[in-house]
Design goal:
single chain, two-stranded parallel ribbon, Rossmann fold, alpha/beta, 2 domains, 316 residues
Length: 316
């Protein structure tokens, strides 16, 4: 049976990837940092990706055929207040993993999950994989550096590494620090009568490329099998949607009228008006296409928050 390792398996994307891998019959090991997750069917292994000895032990023990590298600190905004931790985790942690694989499991196929944040502000749209990397936050710099590190390990050591560059993605279980989930949680709170029917917002007119996390992990599974080693692949919807339209969809699920007010402190003057991906490369290489439309994704996110907030109230 194919042996698969997922680093950062206890995160938002990791949990969805684990469910897909279990469904498809893999033997799966997943790493966590502090609190052991409850998902059954996984060999859970505690590992700090920043500690070289722990990562060496992990790879020696698991001997994976496939490695999905998701472990990272993933907040672009929060990265400005924790630069060293972000670099230690996202760059040096990736180096620890690649060295361990090179020494103890060089036959592994590796998918490095990077970020479209490494492109920075686009000069032209849609963004292709050949777009210059111009990262604008410590998070984006760490992801761009790790992306290039993976390419170097492919060239120098012959490791079978594929680089994914996902654009914005959302779906059930996403933390409320991200815009779609934040709005969904607030609308669910209003629906349950736990919040005044007002939502404070920033710039609603910016447009971004949002995918469903369940589509994204399907792309990852296809890429590790069918992607070309050394290559980078954008993963996204390939079409932009405004934050205004996202909020409008979510408010439409609420039985109460909702007032939207612009909060000056939430406005960011330097944001790009529109960003979206060219996804022809991943589609041609793997046959991947999305199955979830925006309405379905946001409805599932809203319903998940309804249930979670209800359960929290019962426990209290």
């Amino acid at each position: 049976m194919m042996r698969v390792l997922v680093t950062g398996a206890d995160g938002f994307v990791g949990r969805h990837l684990l469910q897909l891998l279990l469904k498809n019959g893999y033997s799966v090991a997943g790493t966590f940092y502090s609190h052991r997750p409850q998902l059954k069917g996984i060999e859970w292994l505690q590992c700090n990706i920043r500690e070289r000895n722990e990562v060496d032990t992990l790879i020696r023990q698991v001997q994976p055929d496939h490695v999905y590298h998701l472990a990272a600190i993933s907040s672009p905004t929060g990265s400005f207040a924790a630069e060293r931790l972000v670099y230690d985790t996202n760059f040096w942690g990736t180096l620890n993993l690649l060295e361990a694989i090179r020494n103890f499991a060089p036959q592994s196929r590796i998918l490095h999950v990077g970020s479209a944040q490494c492109y920075g502000k686009p000069n032209e749209l849609p963004i292709t994989e050949s777009h210059e990397l111009k990262p604008e936050s410590p998070y984006a710099v760490s992801k761009a550096a790790a992306d290039l590190l993976c390419y170097q390990y492919f060239c120098t050591h012959g490791l079978h590494i594929i680089r994914a560059r996902p654009f914005n993605h959302t779906g059930p279980g996403q933390d409320a620090s991200f815009v779609c989930s934040n709005f969904a949680k607030q609308v669910a709170s209003i629906e349950l009568g736990r919040q005044e029917p007002t939502i404070s917002v920033g710039n609603l007119d910016i447009e971004r490329d949002f995918s469903d996390v369940r589509d994204v992990v399907c792309a990852y599974e296809l890429l590790i099998d069918k992607g070309t080693a050394g290559e980078a692949y954008n993963v996204g919807a390939g079409t932009p949607i405004s934050i205004r339209d996202i909020l409008s969809h979510l408010i439409g699920f609420c039985s109460e009228p909702v007032h939207v007010q612009v909060e000056e402190s939430l406005l960011r003057g330097s944001e790009s008006k529109k960003i979206y991906a060219d996804i022809k490369k991943v589609s041609v290489a793997t046959g991947w296409r999305s199955h979830y439309d925006v309405q379905t994704t946001l409805n599932d996110l809203f319903v998940t928050w309804l249930h979670q907030l209800d359960e929290t109230a019962v426990k209290q």
